[in-house]
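Dear Dr. H.,

I hope your travels went smoothly. While you were away I took the liberty of generating a structure for the chain from your last submission, since the lab meeting agenda had it listed for discussion. I wanted you to have the full record in hand beforehand rather than looking at slides cold. The sequence, exactly as received, is reproduced here:
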Amino acid sequence: MVREVDVAVIGAGPAGLAAAVEAAAAGLSVTVLDEQPAPGGQVYRAIERADSGRLAILGQDYAEGRELVAAFRASRAEYLPAATVWNIGTDRLIDYSQGGEIACLRATAIVAATGALERPCPVPGWTLPGVTTAGGLQILLKGAGVVEDDLVLAGAGPLLWLIASQLVAAGAPPRAVVETLPRGRQAAALARLPGALRAAGYLRKGVALMNAVRRAGVAVHTHAEGLEIEGETRVTGLRFRAEGGEHRLHCTAVGLHQGVIPNPQVTRLLRCEHVWDASQHAFRPVLDDDFQTTFPGLYVAGDAGGIGGARAAALQGRLVGMHLAARAGRKVAGKPAALRTALARDLAIRPFLEALYAPDPAILNPADSTIVCRCEEVTAGRVRAAVKLGAPGANQVKSLVRTGMGPCQGRVCGVAVSAIIATARGAPPDTADYYRIRPPLKPLALTELAAYPMIAPDLEIREP
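The corresponding predicted structure, in token form, is as follows:
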């Protein structure tokens, strides 16, 4: 028998938690499904277990998550931790795996609060053991208190400086920060600065992070290019050009970062309309004023609909929860207009940040020998060869060379492959499109799949 709920929320980060709290407060039945064992998402990961020392390292923004998680725990929303959503049907039937078993529920409305993905950074050597994303390093720090002792951070973006400062506070500063911003980028972004002053707190925070890293004696290399990670069986160093010369830093770990992009897997699965966001250099789903996609009943809150950060995500989540309550004829206690004003003010920083930290052109157009699809070990050269054979977009290249057919289902290589195709064709990025996403969204054990008809004998595994 399939359970019915008013609202299903996928993801227990700031957006998902806020949406669940508001909808449940209005009396709607709410179920939150999340892959992690505890609420918080990536931003507030392990916040309930954080002691005073961890809070001091990770900062006030991280500590703010305690209040939101506590409000969620006190709400009437049902919480399904360690639950992996692997399919959603056009009838809004959600299939998920939890504890080695498959279950399903149907929702009147679905809120996709699946957050962001880190932009892939295909540089020579990025598949070596010891290389991770900067966000992966933060997961280790937040979730387990683990830090790398011999680390170089390379790339660009606010998260790079945040993690560097957190590692300094943890007593394990990185060996160096290698920033890949091209020359002239700061001057070009200045035109967006007046608007960003509406959210001046973010600017002050960014300057403070950079100053803290420099005061700790961390070497900072600016305008770096030509990144190459060295090593045979694992990382032994990072080579690059900067400051008029060649540099090589010995290290056993490298954290790469080129910003974050919306996670499109759920909205692509349901064939929602997407647009190319030239400012964020990524695809994002088309949303109406209430954050509903072009698929009726599917809403997106937070970074999955466009990068805005944790506070904006929570505000969007609250607005979605209030909208669902009002649509169901329930009384809404909050003031949506005030929340929208706060959201606009918080997002005022985004045009400046996106102009300043646009991805490094070399990352978008890697050398032929560089692996792009890690799962299938497909190089950029093979992608370009497929384009020469006539493949016009990501799905045709996928058919020819198997990009995006591994366990990650394109989460790692998707935007990189699209960018390479567009550049090779000399066409706008949106013409390369993105992979068509099919279930399962995440790897699924065959034992779980085999048991599916026993759980719901009247249903078939559906593809939207």
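Two observations you may find useful: Residues 457-464 have pLDDT under 50 and may be disordered. The chain is about 35% helix and 20% strand.

With kind regards,
E. W.
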